[in-house]
Amino acid sequence: MLGVLDLFDDSMLTRTAESIAEEMGVSIPTGYRYVRLLVEAGLLQRVENSHYTLGPRIILLDHYIRKADPVLREGIPIMRELVETTGFDCVSSSLFGDQLLDTHREYSGVPAALAYGRGRPRPLFRGGAPKVIVAGFPPAQLHKLFDAHRAEAVQNGLPGEWSDFRRYYAAIRKAGHYLSNGELEPHLAALAAPIAKADGGTWGAISLVLETSRLAIVDTDKLARLVMDAAQRLSARLN
After folding, report:
1. Contact in structure between 57 and 43 (CB atoms under 8 Å)
2. CA 231 to CA 194: how far, in whole Å?
3. Were 192 and a residue from 15, 105, 128, 198 both cysteine, which residue would form a disulfide, CB within 3.0 to 4.6 Å?
4. What is the pTM (predicted TM-score) of this model?
5. What's the CATH code, domain 69-238?
6. Is the CB of residue 117 less than 8 Å from the CB of residue 103?
């Protein structure tokens, strides 16, 4: 029944009980029962023309998630400090399964126009945050990701051979940061660093976001040091 919630995304924001039953492979009475129970729980709500969409309880649950997330609890003060120092927006991101999600954004005085935000899945092989997070994978996990998403990786300009793919991410891991120039959104650049776990994995990443036109007039090496220092301080608090 909870799998019904996975049927909603940017391309399908509302559904009927009949379409839910069809997608779930259950009878129409069972589909209606799922919908009724989810509505009673506040996880779905009825809108126009007998359609249903995600319900208000999810907003409440998101509030609790924000308060419980250790990266946000420890990281927001550091992110705010980074924004004050640089004048650029700062974004935190994490990987959930194979989905890369932004979890928080601290705004500068002149916020960047981002198409992505908290909760909207981002491409796994484009942009600074996913690059530094994936670079922290141990070899077996990285190989599994490569096998599962090889075609997608190649479509995004990454090597199609495992040895080259591994070397690509090894170089990012060694650098400790990654500068994305127009990869995710043509007018934006992002300088990201991983939030390392004690066991060698990553909690996620923090990124400074700026207009690509600013790259010619800013010291990207200094920005990289600032982002890496902030990520290391956050990592120390979490670990």
Report:
1. yes
2. 6
3. 128
4. 0.83
5. 3.30.450.40
6. no
Provide the token pair at 195. Answer: 């939030």
List the Cα angle 129/132/134 in 5-degree steps. 100
Domain extent listing, the chain:
2-57, 69-238
- DSSP state for residue 124 in the 8-state scheme: S
Token pair 């990592």 is found at 235
Place of tokens 């809108």: 47
Backbone angles phi, psi at 59, to 5 degrees: -65, -45
Q: How would you list the strands of the sheet with 89-96, edge to edge?
A: 99-106, 89-96, 202-211, 188-196, 178-181
Q: 2-57 sits in which CATH class?
A: mainly alpha
Nearest 5 degrees, angle CA 1-CA 22-CA 12?
Answer: 80
Residue 221, C-beta contacts closer than 8 angstroms, at least 6 positions apart: none
What's the token pair of residue 18?
Answer: 């009949």
> What does the pLDDT profile of the chain (239 residues) look like in tens digits?
999 999 998 889 999 999 999 999 999 999 999 999 999 999 999 998 899 999 999 999 999 998 989 999 999 999 999 999 999 999 999 998 888 999 999 998 887 787 778 888 899 999 999 999 999 999 999 999 999 999 999 999 999 999 999 999 999 999 999 999 999 888 999 999 999 998 888 999 999 999 998 888 999 999 999 999 999 999 999 98
- Given a contact cutoff of 8 angstroms between Cβ atoms, the answer to whether 123 and 130 are in contact is yes
Please tell me the total number of residues recorded for the chain in this structure: 239
Number of H helices, E strands in the chain: 8, 8
